[in-house]
Amino acid sequence: MGAAPGQAGAGPLQKDSKVAVAKTQAVGAAQRQVTMKGLYFQKSSTNEEITFVFQERENLPVVEDNYVKLQVKACALSQINTKLLAEMKMEKDFFPVGREIAGIVLDVGSKVSFFQPDDEVVGILPLDSEDPGLCEVVRVHEHYLVHKPEKVTWTEAAGTIRDGVRAYTALHYLSHLSPGKSVLIMDGASALGMIAIQLAHHRGAKVISTAGSLEDKQCLERLRPSLARVIDVSNGKAHVAESCLEETGGLGVDIVLDAGVKLELLESSCKHGLEERVCLL
């Protein structure tokens, strides 16, 4: 007698279905354990040479307490300060690369109070961070992040946060800049210098700046609000001290902010008593 339709083949079909389901579950589990590549560097024994390497990283652990999981949309590359790492006695086989980041919050810990998923943020990873900014996802404490302004792009946010913090720290916390004060910003056309000029103008200060080339001088002269004076030091003939004394009626400037100028030029200004406070950045 023939078997009823479907009964004879029921066993193999059910077995194949179970195998297919098992394979699908295995693939799903594998997809959840996604590995990401992050960029690290390794110092030589003399700290004079560094080697860059990509390392694979598994999914980050579940965020806890005040930590935030962040999808990186942009990361800025700044010069690696191996001397600072050595002075802080930070001993690692590999150091993460990229600290200034901007991105979208994916998840937050139970004690996070400033952010929630889908927030757009920008921040600076601490020196002891285990995660490199040059990675798809990082885990960072909420205190190292701030909300990104809506009209600022990802690259603009990541590219300006470092110099922005440096300039604000120098003018607000270290030199206590206030309305009516005069400030000399060395190399004002640099990234740090441009931000410092804008912040100083915002606080109502009188701003003088040096320019290292004709192009820099023209750039600074186009700024609005205008600078009190742009001192062209490219030909080596300009006297910074005399120019500042002339601009301030013989009083000199209250603050000198070094944005990467040659040390001997800054020392020359100091010898003439131009400043009350000098900020080296």
TrEMBL record:
Boundaries of every Enoyl reductase (ER) domain copy: 45-281
GO molecular function, one term: oxidoreductase activity
Classification via Pfam families: ADH_N (PF08240)
Domain of life the protein comes from: Eukaryota
Name the UniProt record assigns to this protein: Quinone oxidoreductase-like protein 1 isoform X6
Organism phylogeny: Eukaryota, Metazoa, Chordata, Craniata, Vertebrata
Name of the gene this protein is made from: CRYZL1
